[in-house]
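Exercise 7b. Backbone tokens:
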């Protein structure tokens, strides 16, 4: 027998699992969880079960008699030999996702996401199937952030080859900090609108001029160092590094500078350090696509967000030391992550990575925990890296 609180918990689970599918229903693959109206059976007991718990039955019926909420409550009559005629709550019928959202306190987010989805797809119909992946953007962006995003999309599509620096764009409120955290999102949207999903570089997609951004890289192979005049620790613009056309078989990308400086020589290998969210520059190094690429970042929400973003440009990128075992075995070294990444889900993470990201995000092991990569003992880390 389901009480109103039980139904609410069930609807919370359904919303969490299905809200993206609900945003764009697809009749051809309709399932029990995406078919409307949605019927929730309330679990009418048998007469034998009712005889064993008469007080429970009365409390259950009373709870639904006193219930006042969204949806239609269907009652059914039973004629029981021992208990006589009974009118019992049979099922709750909800007409659509908005009803579910209202039930669980997500009405404002659902309405906002629905309205923005409708506005964006009316302007760019090709976005219809993509936008549910970015549900949190639709639901949670402030009006100012959403309008800035909309205006930027309009301007880029209308001016596909401006060759301007991003700060030169005539868009109110646009600044470098705002843009840095949204390059992946904008690349996704622009590529879909243009129908060109093969190009993932933000600047090339948007027809913008990239800022000269120095990449710090160490060459861990003496033979390769000899080919470039003995240079082993290089800080150069990505176009200059791209022109080197290095013959490397392995690339490590690490977040912390001192971590990268600690790497010993490894044949055919380079290590790139301290890119942060600027991992899109990796796509502009043609020789990197021929190598096995591995990312080792901080075990926090931003570390996983950077990994997710990097996979936009390097789909086969593997993560290292960003797993639950590493996190939990270094509990004494945790620090606080002052501000977590906003996304609830990061679509390019593996299931195991997603589970760790979700656990950190939802404070499964502690409040705003963070394991910085440089805090991990080097012998522990190097054993994993060497494997």
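Sequence design result:
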């Amino acid at each position: 027998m389901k009480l109103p609180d039980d139904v609410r918990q069930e609807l919370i689970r359904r919303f969490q699992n299905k809200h993206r599918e609900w945003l764009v229903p697809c009749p051809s693959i309709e399932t029990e969880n995406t078919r409307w109206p949605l019927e929730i059976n309330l679990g009418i007991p048998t007469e034998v079960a009712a005889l064993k718990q008469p007080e429970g039955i009365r409390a259950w019926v009373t709870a639904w008699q006193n219930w006042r909420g969204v949806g239609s409550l269907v009652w059914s009559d039973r004629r029981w030999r021992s208990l006589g005629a009974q009118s019992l709550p049979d099922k709750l019928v909800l007409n659509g996702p908005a009803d579910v959202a209202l039930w669980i306190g997500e009405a404002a987010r659902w309405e906002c996401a629905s309205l923005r989805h409708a506005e964006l797809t009316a302007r760019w119909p090709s976005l219809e199937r993509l936008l549910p992946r970015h549900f949190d953007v639709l639901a949670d962006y402030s009006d100012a952030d959403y309008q800035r995003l909309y205006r930027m999309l309009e301007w880029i599509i209308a001016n596909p080859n401006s060759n301007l620096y991003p700060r030169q764009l005539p868009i109110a409120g646009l600044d470098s900090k705002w843009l840095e955290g949204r390059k992946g999102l904008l690349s996704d949207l622009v590529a879909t609108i243009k129908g060109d999903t093969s190009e993932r570089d933000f600047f090339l997609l948007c027809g913008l001029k990239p800022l000269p951004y120095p990449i710090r890289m160490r060459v861990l192979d003496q033979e390769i160092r000899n080919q470039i005049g003995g240079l082993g620790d290089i800080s150069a613009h990505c176009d200059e590094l791209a022109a080197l056309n290095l013959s490397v078989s392995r690339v490590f990308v690490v977040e912390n500078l001192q971590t990268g400086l600690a790497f010993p020589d490894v044949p055919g290998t380079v290590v790139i350090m301290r890119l942060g969210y600027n991992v899109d520059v990796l796509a502009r190094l043609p020789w990197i696509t021929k190598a096995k690429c591995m990312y080792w970042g901080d075990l926090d929400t931003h570390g996983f967000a950077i990994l997710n973003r990097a996979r936009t440009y390097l789909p086969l990128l593997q993560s290292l030391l960003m797993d639950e075992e590493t996190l939990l075995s270094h509990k004494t070294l945790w620090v606080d992550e002052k501000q977590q990444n906003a996304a609830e889900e990061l679509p390019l993470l593996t299931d195991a990575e997603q589970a760790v990201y979700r656990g950190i995000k939802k404070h499964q092991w502690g409040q705003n925990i963070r394991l910085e990569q440089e805090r991990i003992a080097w012998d522990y880390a190097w054993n994993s890296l060497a494997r």
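Instructor comment: Residues 45 and 53 are 10 Å apart (CA to CA). Residues 4-103 form one domain.
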